[in-house]
Structures are given as structure tokens and as C-alpha cells.
Specification:
5 helices; Ribosomal Protein L15, Chain: K, domain 2; alpha/beta; 3-stranded parallel sheet
Length: about 130
């Protein structure tokens, strides 16, 4: 009995057609090959945002990130009746939590809720620039 390989000796493509016997020829390439050519519709349908830049990022030197503290954390670290948050390293006071004693707070920014809660407890918020 003659082997399959020997049977095709002399034929050019060994019964596979022109491209099927070459690497990944029958499936049109490996991976994302041809994604801008013969697999264009696949790209449009299944990978609509695959290429290109989407959105933007500002340069880190242009970003201003506030280091904030909430009222509930502030009450636990405030020892006396006044505190300067800028000296500790905080930029902004936020209003989450409760405050039950009057504290005079100095900070560069504060939310409206934080100011109202501190004033309701008998304290004050001094905003410095």
C-alpha cells in the first residue's frame, strides 16, 4: 500500500488546493492578520474601539488633586478646639460624618456641607488662600 505522501509526489499541492497547505493560509492568517483588509467587517462588528486613542489624559503638572479629609476623621485627630489642616497636609475638608464639639478649622477649601455641619456644632471654618 502506498503512503499518502508518496501518492501525491509530482502533484503541486498534495490535494489541498493552492493555499491550504501553506502555514495558516486556509484561515487567512494567524491572529489579527488581515484585520484592515479581508477581515475588515470582523473588526468593525466585534472590535469597534480596538484601535486609536479614546479620551484624553491631562499632563500631570496640570492636574490638581486635593488631599481631603472628612469630618469624622478630623474629629478623631483634633486634640484642642482649633486645628490648621494645611499644616498637617490636607487641602480640603469634606462633610462626611458627624461632629459633636465646636472646633475652629483653618483650611484652604471646604465643602458647603462640611461648613454647615461645623457651624451647627458651634465651630467655625476659616478658608485661607
Amino acid at each position: 500500500m502506498v503512503s499518502r505522501t508518496n501518492k501525491f509526489r509530482g502533484s503541486r499541492y498534495h490535494g489541498r488546493g493552492k493555499k491550504a497547505g501553506r502555514g495558516a493560509g486556509k484561515r487567512g492568517g494567524r491572529g489579527n492578520a488581515g484585520i484592515n483588509k479581508h477581515r475588515l467587517m470582523t473588526r468593525l462588528k466585534y472590535m469597534p474601539r480596538h484601535w486609536g486613542m479614546h479620551g484624553f489624559n491631562r499632563h500631570p503638572s496640570l492636574r490638581k488633586v486635593n488631599i481631603s479629609i472628612n469630618l469624622q476623621e478630623l474629629q478623631s485627630i483634633a486634640e484642642g478646639d482649633s486645628i490648621n489642616l494645611g499644616e498637617i497636609g490636607y487641602d480640603k475638608l469634606l462633610g462626611k460624618g458627624r461632629i459633636d464639639r465646636p472646633i475652629n478649622i483653618t483650611v484652604s477649601k471646604a465643602s458647603a456641607l462640611a461648613v454647615s455641619k461645623v457651624e451647627a456644632a458651634g465651630g467655625s471654618v476659616n478658608i485661607e488662600e
